[in-house]
C-alpha cells in the first residue's frame, strides 16, 4: 500500500544528462521511468514536473548578457523537451502519460487545464507538467509546489542530486550533516539552498510537505512512497 494516494514528483533536469556533458542520457531516463512505473503499480497517482538544466546548461553560454526573462523562457522550453522525452519513454515502457504545458505551444503539447489534469490522474495516467509555472523569475521547484497544491497532492517529492537536506551545501562543505526532518520555518530561516524560498514558502502556506531524496539511489522513490525512512522530510 502506498503511503500517499497522489504525489507530485519533481525530477532534476540536470540529473537527466547522466555522465554526459549535456542532453538526455538514454539509460538514465529509462531508469527514472522504471522507478516511476514501480510506484504507479503500487496504486499511487503520479504527476511529474521536470527541470531543464541538462539542456539549458548546454546553451547557457549563449545566454550570457541576455535579458533574464528571455533566458528564462529558453529554460522553460528546455523543460518542454525533457517532458516530451519523459512521456515518450513512459510510452515505450508501457505506461500512459500526458504532457501539459504552462505556455501555449498547442501543436506540440496540450495546454495545462487543471480539471483535465485531475481527470487524467483519476484515470491512472501520469501527467507531466511542462514549461514550469509559465513565468520567468521562477523555478521548476516552484512549479512543483504550485502544481502539487493545485492537484491536491499529499506530498511534493524532490528527486535531486543530493540525498536530503543538509546543514550546509554538502557539495561545498564536507562536514555538513543531513536532517531526517526539518520544519519549513527552520529551512527558510537557515537559508538552506536545496530548494528556492518561493517553493518552500508556498508549500509551507499550503501545508504541503516536501521530501528531498536522491535521484541516483535505486529504489529510493519506491521507499519514499511506501513511507519508509529515506531522505529528508520538510514539514509544517
Ligand atoms: N542545505 C543543503 N542541503 C542539501 N543540498 C543543498 C543545500 N544547499 C545547497 N544544496 C545544493 O542544492 C542542489 C539541489 O538543488 P537544485 O540545484 O535545485 O537541483 P535540481 O537539479 O534537482 O533542481 C544540490 O545539488 C546541493 O548541492
Ligand atoms: O516557472 C519556471 C520554471 C523554470 N524557468 C526557467 O527554466 C530553467 C530550468 O529549470 P530548473 O533550473 O528549475 O531545472 P533543474 O534545476 O531541475 O534542471 C530555470 O533555470 C529558469 O530559467 C522559469 O523561468 N520559470
UniProtKB/TrEMBL annotation:
Residue stretches making up the Aspartate/glutamate/uridylate kinase domain: 6-214
Reactions catalysed according to its record: UMP + ATP = UDP + ADP
One annotated GO molecular function: UMP kinase activity
Broad EC category: transferase
UniProt pathway annotation: Pyrimidine metabolism; CTP biosynthesis via de novo pathway; UDP from UMP (UMPK route): step 1/1
Binding of ATP, residues: 10-13, 53, 57, 160, 166, 169
Entry-linked CDD domains: AAK_UMPK-PyrH-Ec
Annotated compartments: Cytoplasm
EC number: 2.7.4.22
Superkingdom, natural source: Bacteria
Amino-acid positions noted as binding UMP in the UniProt annotation, renumbered to this chain: 52, 72, 133-140
Activity: how regulated: Inhibited by UTP.
TM region positions: none
This protein's UniProt keywords: ATP-binding, Cytoplasm, Kinase, Nucleotide-binding, Pyrimidine biosynthesis, Transferase
Pfam families: AA_kinase
Family named by the database record: Belongs to the UMP kinase family.
Subunit architecture: Homohexamer.
Function: Catalyzes the reversible phosphorylation of UMP to UDP.
UniProt-listed PANTHER family: URIDYLATE KINASE, URIDYLATE KINASE PUMPKIN, CHLOROPLASTIC
HAMAP family, per the entry: PyrH_B
Protein name: Uridylate kinase
Amino acid at each position: 500500500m502506498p503511503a500517499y494516494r497522489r504525489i507530485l514528483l519533481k525530477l532534476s533536469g540536470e540529473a537527466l544528462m547522466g555522465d554526459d556533458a549535456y542532453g538526455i542520457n538514454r539509460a538514465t531516463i529509462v531508469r527514472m521511468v522504471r522507478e516511476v512505473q514501480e510506484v504507479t503499480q503500487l496504486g499511487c497517482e503520479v504527476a511529474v514536473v521536470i527541470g531543464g538544466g541538462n539542456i539549458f546548461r548546454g546553451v547557457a553560454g549563449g545566454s550570457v548578457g541576455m535579458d533574464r526573462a528571455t533566458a528564462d523562457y529558453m529554460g522553460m522550453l528546455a523543460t518542454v523537451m525533457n517532458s516530451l522525452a519523459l512521456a515518450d519513454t513512459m510510452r515505450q515502457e508501457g505506461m500512459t502519460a500526458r504532457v501539459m504545458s504552462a505556455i501555449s505551444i498547442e501543436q506540440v503539447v496540450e495546454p495545462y487545464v487543471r480539471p483535465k489534469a485531475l481527470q487524467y490522474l483519476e484515470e491512472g495516467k501520469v501527467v507531466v507538467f511542462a514549461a514550469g509555472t509559465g513565468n520567468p523569475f521562477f523555478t521548476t521547484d516552484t512549479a512543483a509546489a504550485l502544481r502539487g497544491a493545485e492537484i491536491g497532492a499529499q506530498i511534493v517529492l524532490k528527486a535531486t542530486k543530493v540525498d536530503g537536506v543538509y546543514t550546509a551545501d554538502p557539495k561545498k562543505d564536507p562536514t555538513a550533516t543531513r536532517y531526517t526532518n526539518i520544519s519549513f520555518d527552520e529551512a527558510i530561516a537557515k537559508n538552506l539552498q536545496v530548494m528556492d524560498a518561493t517553493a518552500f514558502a508556498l508549500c509551507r502556506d499550503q501545508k504541503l510537505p516536501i521530501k528531498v531524496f536522491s535521484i541516483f539511489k535505486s529504489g529510493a522513490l519506491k521507499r519514499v512512497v511506501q513511507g519508509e525512512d529515506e531522505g529528508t522530510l520538510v514539514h509544517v
